[in-house]
Design goal:
Low-confidence stretches: none
Structural class: alpha+beta
Bound molecules: FE2/S2 (inorganic) cluster
Mean pLDDT: 90
Number of strands: 5
Order of helices and strands: HEHHEEEHE
Shape: elongated
Radius of gyration: 18 Å
């Protein structure tokens, strides 16, 4: 077996780190859809499907989508949060599938918060 040089080992390590980074949630924009009972009753499932569809259509590789439970704010459901890397988390209220698509285009892609739909920012 051929012995590896320090340079070759460094290259292998860098390549592995890049691949791990690409797979891990670190360094990715994050969308969380709150799927508590009231969220689902208010249409969170359709919102989630619209988000996943938009991400696939636009081939957004740097975005991960997860689900979470309720946060005690029934009256504002469906609620999603968007956190772009290095920016505060933004909670959006009454997120219909149409609003979700707009939030992706305006906030996730262009970095502009959709102010009229904001519930809070952290
Ligand atoms: S079920 Fe509505 S806030 Fe928890």
């Amino acid at each position: 077996m051929k012995k590896l040089t320090i340079e070759e080992l460094k290259k292998i390590r860098e390549k592995a780190q890049t691949e791990i980074q690409a797979r891990s949630p670190e360094g990715k924009d994050r969308i969380v859809v709150h799927m508590g009972t009231c969220g689902i009753a208010a249409g969170a499932r359709e919102t989630l499907l619209a988000i996943l569809d938009e991400i696939e259509k636009r081939n957004l590789q740097n975005v991960i989508v997860t689900q979470a439970g309720c946060i005690g704010l029934c009256e504002y459901e469906p609620i999603i949060s968007v956190q772009k890397v290095g920016t505060p988390k933004v909670l959006y209220k009454y997120v219909t599938p149409e609003k979700a698509r707009r939030i992706i285009a305006q906030h996730v892609i262009n970095g502009q918060i959709v102010t009229e739909d904001v519930l809070s920012t952290e």
